[in-house]
Amino acid sequence: MNRHKLLNILIFVGLVTGFAVGAYLFRTSGGDDESIGWLAAAGDLILIRPLKMLIIPLVFVSVVVGITSIGDPSRLGLVGGTTLVYYFATMIIAVVIGTAIVRGVQPGKGLNLNDDVEAQQTIKAEYESTFDEEKRKELDKRQQEGLGGAWMNIARQIVPTNVIAEAAAGNPLPVIAFAILFGLSLGFLGDQAKPVVTFMNGLFDAVMTMVQWVIWLTPIGVFLLIAWSVGKLGAVDTITSLGKYMGCVLVGLLIHALVVLPTILFLFGRANPFKFMWRMRPALLTAFGTDSSSATLPVTMETAETDGECSKRASGFVLPLGSTINMDGTALYEAVAVVFLFQAFGIHLEFEQLLIVVLTATLAAVGAAGIPSAGLVTMVIVIHAVNTSLAGTGVENLELYAIGFIIGVDRILDMCRTTVNVWGDAVGARIITRIAPDTEASAAAPSRGAGL
Ligand code: ASP
Q1: 157 Cβ inside 6 Å of ligand 1
Q2: Nearest atom of ligand 1 to the alpha carbon of 292
Q3: Domain residues for 52?
Q4: What whole-number distance in Å separates Cα of residue 248 and Cα of residue 104?
Q5: Of all helices (H) and strands (E), which one includes residue 313?
Q6: Residue 107 resides in a domain
Q7: For the residues 313-331, what does the mean pLDDT come to?
Q8: What mean pLDDT is reported for the chain?
Q9: 406, 337 in Cβ contact below 8 A?
Q10: What's the pLDDT at 140?
Q11: Does 250 reside within a domain?
Q12: Class of residue 202 by CB neighbours under 10 A (exposed 0-12, middle 13-18, buried 19+)
């Protein structure tokens, strides 16, 4: 049995046993953090921290090497343009699916939380226990800054002033922006920059070797994190009233992941989507376990470039960028969650407001970092935009604390939407492989690049 097969089997075993142990804890421990919190702490130490350690170096070198290996500026323009069109088109489709489902099913209808003072107090308490005062202030600030603030936030990340500080803070987007410029300048310098390009290729190989080591921690990490997530659900008492809402998110995610993205891959990538999905399973299962597209990035890149048969050129560019801005699952989730909350608080949304949801949920997903529960936070942008459009209509606004209603089940939904986020990135890399294949020479060589 080769190493890849063995790893795949071990990750799968981690997933299944994680579920089984989680289900047992769910019934026995009541899901309180004191008894099962150690699972999350161990999973963090064993898998998430080592993966996180690799993110910034990997993002930087892979984007530089990706850009220098594509080389030719017109090819670069085509790859960059197609990638962005792919990201935005798939996110918009995801949001439209989510909005249509939540509008049709109306999972929040009849809950009438606006008339239920006791429920409101519980929801507020949940909100306040999840977000401490500082975080709540930040959420209020984000809400006040509204759409303009959200755009500015993304723009500032794309034009950083101190890329070292951004890297030290673990922000991938400013590092990617810098790496794109750096890669372009190496290409511009041509022969003069060859030693640097060779050095970057060596650096890339070294980081990927570290990734290959860390990947062997995935089975145990996935086991611990899934056991914790499933066990924790025992503490959620609102789960029954949220069943329909969760169903809407999950059905939407399934349609997007199993119908929309495979169709796009088949049409534009000329690949067998389900075979590709099967081959990408180490990355998909890691996303499911870690709840973070950024932490999964090292595994996504390794799997895409080996079993997934994506070109190194395409994945070096599409995957790092995708892990921070291309979030189909998050976009879909934000739309369903916001419309659901408005329904649950008895606030009727017209077509115009649903359109606002579609547009702002896409923006909110782009702005969400690839970390656990980021979508829950950027949701305030969507709520604010809808509230603003309701101004003057006499209809009440939705208070921010309403988010507290869905916090309890966020982890499990986050696992699913993160998997779809990573799947969307992988499909993008496979499609872009068609316009940026590795030449035979570079595919055979131990390192890539040198295509200047
Ligand atoms: N956890 C998601 C990710 O890392 C982001 C989110 O929707 O919260 O992709």
Answers
A1: no
A2: 4
A3: 3-438
A4: 10
A5: helix 312-325
A6: yes
A7: 92
A8: 88
A9: yes
A10: 82
A11: yes
A12: middle
Contact 389, 352 (CB under 8 A): yes
CATH of the domain at 261: 1.10.3860.10
Atom of ligand 1 minimally distant from the CA of 374: 8
Terminal Cα distance for the chain, rounded? 39
Q: Which letter does DSSP use for residue 193 in this model? A: G
Atom of ligand 1 nearest to the CA of 291: 1
Q: What is the pLDDT of residues 151-168, one digit of tens each?
A: 888 888 889 999 999 999
Cβ(293) to ligand 1 under 6 A? yes
For residue 452, tell me if it sits in a domain. Answer: no
Assess if residue 447 is contained within a domain.
no
Atom of ligand 1 nearest to the CA of 373: 8
Q: How confident is the model at residue 441 (pLDDT cuts 50, 70, 90)?
A: very low
Q: Which are the contacts of 66, defined by CB distance < 8 A and separation ≥ 6?
A: 183, 312, 313, 314, 315, 316, 317
- Two tokens, residue 264: 């796009």
Taking the centre of ligand 1 as the mean of its atom positions, its distance from the CA of residue 419, in whole angstroms, is 9
Q: Using the mean position of ligand 1's atoms as its centre, give its distance from the Cα of residue 420 in Å.
A: 10
Say what the pLDDT of residue 442 is: 42
**How many domains does the chain fold into?**
1
CA dihedral of 90, 96, 101, 106, whole degrees rounded to 10: 140
Number of Cβ within a 10 Å radius of residue 138? 14
C-alpha to C-alpha distance for 305 and 207, rounded to whole angstroms: 14
Give 392-422 pLDDT, tens digit per residue.
777 778 998 999 999 888 888 999 999 999 9
Q: Please determine, for residue 444, whether its predicted confidence score (pLDDT) is greater than 60.
A: no
Most confident of 153-157, 297-301, 368-372: 297-301
